[in-house]
């Protein structure tokens, strides 16, 4: 099974909340659902880049309980210090291009939403070019 962020993976954003690597509740719901539906199947998880940060936050949040929910987990291509990683997104070159891409994905999610019920003014979100 593949977990897609809110508003990504070909699915429209249906809530006023977008995806965020620091919020692992959605991933937790998926893990709990799979474990409930297939209680004897070993469940493993792998996160790459932003997905790795999300999985790492999930494991940190769950703590020892994660051992009973996942048989194994693997984090790939993640930054070790998210604050320094965020700072580097503002530097010239490839990192800034990645920043623009990430911001563009978030803006696209909001533009594609059938209704914009964000707590903040959608106009300011739609003209964003940086995360």
Q: Can you walk through the features of this model?
A:
The chain is mainly α. The chain has one domain. It has six helices and two strands; from the N terminus they run H-E-H-H-E-H-H-H. The chain has a two-stranded parallel sheet with strand order 1-2. The longest helix is centred in the last third of the chain and has 19 residues. It is globular and about 45 Å long. The model has no long low-confidence stretch (mean pLDDT 82).
SSE map:
Layout: H1 25-37, E1 44-48, H2 50-62, H3 66-69, E2 72-76, H4 82-88, H5 94-112, H6 122-126
Parallel strand pairs: 1-2
Q: What is the structure about, briefly put?
A:
The chain has 131 residues and is mainly alpha-helical. It has six helices and two strands.
Helical amount among residues, as a percent range?
A: 40-55%
Q: Major sheet, described briefly?
A: 2 strands, parallel
Number of beta strands: 2
Looking across the biggest beta sheet, what order are the strands in?
A: 1-2
Number of helices: 6
Low-confidence stretches: none
Distance from first to last alpha carbon: 28 Å
In total, how many domains does the architecture comprise?
Answer: 1
Sheet-strand content, in percent, reads 5-15%
Q: Give the overall pLDDT as a whole number.
A: 82
Structural class: mainly alpha
Radius of gyration using CA atoms only: 16 Å
Shape: globular
Query: Helices and strands, in N-to-C order?
Result: HEHHEHHH
